[in-house]
Design a protein that fits this description.
Blueprint (H helix, E strand, L loop, with lengths): L1 H5 L3 H4 L1 E8 L2 E8 H13 L4 H16 L5 H26 L1
Antiparallel strand pairs: 1-2
Helix pairs in contact: 3-4, 3-5
Amino acid sequence: MCQVFAGQAPERYSSTTRRLRLNGQSTSIRLENAFWEVIDQIAENDDLTTPIFISTLHSEVLELRGEPENFTSLLRCACLKFLEVSAVSEPEVVAAE
């Protein structure tokens, strides 16, 4: 079983830093490439650019809970949540076809 995880391409777990603005402040976020792929997909699904999606998410979190303790962890968990929701909704799409 671990071969599925251990055998993945190293590019997936290599990190990339992207610079963007959050609430007018220039910042950088470092995530593994696999997470960037999911974040890019979430943004595309919402017809947003990735920086606008991330900035919107950050603003909504500020409004709901205040400044997040670890925003990159929140982004990783958002990716997991997106994948969970996608997995649940896919059977409905298949069933409707």
